[in-house]
Structures are given as structure tokens and as C-alpha cells.
Amino acid sequence: MTAASSNTFPPTQPPAVLAVHRLTADAPGAIAVIQVSGPAAAAQINAIVPGHNALALQPGMLHLVHLTLDGAAVDHCLLICHAPNLFELHLHGGPAVVRAVTRALVGHSDSAPLPTNAPQPTSPAAMLSSPVAPSTIEAEVYDLLAVATSRTAVRMLANQLTSGLTQWCNHWLQRLSSNAAAQDEAALLHQFTLATQSLLHNWRWQSYFFTPPKIVFFGLPNAGKSTLMNAMLGRSASIVSDLAGTTRDYVDAIGRLVRGSLDMPVILIDTAGDRPTTDAIEQVSIDRTRQQAASAEVILLVVDASTQNCAATLADLADTAQRNFSQAVLIPVFNKADLLPHPPMTAANAIAVSAKQESNISELTAAIFAATGADQLDEAGPTAFTQRQRRLLHQAASHTSLKDAIIILKQLTGAAP
Fold it and tell me: Which residues contact 334 (CB under 8 A, 6 or more apart)?
């Protein structure tokens, strides 16, 4: 509802100039979306995001901002301008943060109820009050922001509007359109094709920040796979025991790997030990282990470094994985390094860790980023983040005329033909 005057809770703005509404469910969540509208919206937002001017934002623009209440930084969030006097704040969904930000916007005390006004339409198709119709890329950014699973993905999406894919398309539209007789058409099309193929190739590791890759722990029983998974998660998800064969079925959990400023969502999958057996129930567990490994992007070959012939065990695991799970990146891991008097002699690309003591977990994380290519990510670079974009880019790269390539690029951006 519109913020109303009260003797107990006087608003900081006149009654009819500000409306605040929570668009997401009134419950704890990863992200909360607060809509702020009305002539006073920009001024109220400016009061809690110092250093930014909401009035300067054009429709379709979004900025990563820091929220400050009573002089103290409380959160960072996305500020989105949908139209003049119509904004959204995408912040972390903890009830305390949402309530504090909402109170600050409407100027109420802590005991006042949350505003419940009906929201203004914010979908690109419904933004009739906006003087600038959002491009197709903008619409896709809005759609994906609601389901982004990492902060890195949010920053990548935001960059696609002001730089990233939008800038890449505009650059090539200008080059292809102004070519005329200045350059050989075949040579320019070849350059464009190479640039497009590079952009499409980069999606291989860019995609991991949108769709969590599956990482499977694969090894003999009692190699410490469950303990290692718990250490990487930072919580207990798998049952841990000194008894070999404790894990009888796979256990999966969603986690997050952090490398510098990058955070990548992952699905970690603990599995039953893989070994020859005559036990029918254990064989079912092993079959399920291999089913999970067959669909994994990354397989950690976990070996107990304190056992004899651990190098031979690793070689056998690697041979099994290469023959059966060729789609996955393989990373050898020597676990239980804390039980050795000196660091184990590892394979060239193997990581020695102690899951029990949580040592060298950061090195294992770095190895996963490097092996998947995720450490190559440039957040500000162009990303073809939808199937529609990648389909059109494939079409543009396959055409043999500048005119056709230009038409397809305009389709991709939503520019008028």
C-alpha cells in the first residue's frame, strides 16, 4: 500500500509519492526483491545507497550497489531501473535485512508492518510507461537474474547490459555495416566467424556459473570420500565412519566453491566405494556410483595416501575412469596426507589433502577451477547465456554475406531491422 501518514510513524515523504512492495515471498530466501515506485522512489533509494544516483539510471540499466543504514554497510544488492520512478532492489533474503531496508525506504519504525501495496508491472512487455523498450538481451537478463545461483552469475548478467554481449554485438554491427568497399568482405566475415566461434567456445566454462557442474568423488571404500565431501561443503552431508563401505548409495548436495572473486555453484556427489564384489547389494551401489560418474563434469579420483601401492591404486582408478567416463575431467586426489611423516610422492597433477584436518582444500578448489577452465572467466566479457543467443550466433557465423550476418545480429540484440 502507499505509505500513509501517522502520528506514531511519520513518513519521510508525503503520502502519495512513494510505494514499496516485496515481490518475492514473505519468507527467508536466498534473494528478496523489493519494488520501489513513485516520484519519491529515487530520493529514498539514494538515501540508502550512497555514491549512486538512481535518477541517473535509464530504463533497463542496473548497478551493483552497497546498502547503508544509519551509516553502517548492511548488504550489497542490484539496483534495477525499469522506468522513471520504478525501481527494484535485489538483495539477500534474510528477514532482518529485508525488514531493515524496507523500514528505511518507507521511514517507519521497527514495529510498523511491512508495506503490502500491489506491485507495478515490471516485465519488459508490460513496461508501457518506459520511453525505452528493453532489448531482447535485457529481457533475458531480467529472466535469469531471478534464478541466478551465484554472485558471479549476477555480476556477469549485469555486465551483459552495459558491456559484455551488448557491446560485442554493437561492435560487430558497426564493423560489418561500415565495411562497404573499405575491406575485403570475405576477410571481414572470416574475422567475424572466428570471433563468434571464440564467444561460443567460452560458454563451456561460463556455463558452470549458471548451471552447477556435477563433481563426483570416486575411489575405493574407506578412501575418505565422505569426509572430503563434507570438508568441501563446510558442513556434514555424508555419514563418516572408519568402517569401509559405510556409504551404500550416493549422496548429493549443493555447495559453492570460491576462488578469488569467483564463486561457482556445484553439485557434490559422494559415492559408494568402487571395487570388485560378489555382494549383490554392494554391486547395486557400485552400479549407481558409475551411473553418477557417467554424467559428471568432474571426477575426483580419491586415493588413501597412507596405504601401500597407492600409486598403483590411482593408476587403476584412472584407467577405469578413462575407459568409462571420458566426458569428465579427472583430478587425482591423495587423501589422508596427515597420516604420512612426509608429503606423498604424487602424480604430476595430483593434489595431496587431509580431509580430516581440512588442509589443502583451497588447492583442490583451485585445481577444479583450472581443470574446468572456470578460472579463465572474465566477468565483464561477452557471454552468450541463452540457447536463443547461441543459436543465432551459430547462424550468423555460418552465413556467407555481410547482409545476412547483420540481420541476425540485429535479431540477437532486438534492434530494429
Answer: 303, 305, 310, 314, 344, 346, 350, 351, 352, 353
Sign of the C-alpha dihedral computed for residues 213, 219, 222 and 223 taken in this order: negative
Residue 378: HSE in the Cβ half-sphere, 13 Å Cα cutoff: 11
Going 298 to 264 to 304 to 221, the CA torsion angle's sign is: negative
What pLDDT, in 10s, does the model give residues 212-236? 999 999 999 889 899 999 999 887 6
Residues 6+ apart with CB under 8 A from 302: 217, 218, 219, 223, 224, 225, 228, 333, 335
φ and ψ at residue 264, rounded to 5 degrees = -120, 120
Q: Which of 3-12, 106-115, 163-172, 270-279 comes out lowest in average pLDDT?
A: 3-12
Looking at residue 237, its pLDDT comes to: 59
pTM value? 0.66
Tell me how far CA of residue 68 lies from CA of 24, 57, 94, in angstroms: 22, 19, 16
The CATH fold assigned to 15-123 is Gyrase A; domain 2 (3.30.1360)
**Alpha-carbon span 165 to 156, nearest angstrom:** 10
Class of domain 214-376: alpha beta
DSSP state of 13: S
Total count of residues recorded for the chain: 417
In 3D space, the residue among 300, 278, 407 whose CA is nearest the CA of residue 355 turns out to be 300
Q: At what angle do helices 387-398 and 136-145 cross, to 10 degrees?
A: 150
Spans of all domains in the chain: 15-123, 151-204+387-413, 214-376
Considering the chain, what is the average pLDDT of its residues? Answer: 81
Mean local confidence (pLDDT), 74-97: 85
Q: Give the C-alpha separation, 305 to 228, whole Å.
A: 13
- pLDDT for position 180: 52
Q: What angle do CA 98, 104, 108 make, to 5 degrees?
A: 105
Average pLDDT over residues 142-148: 78
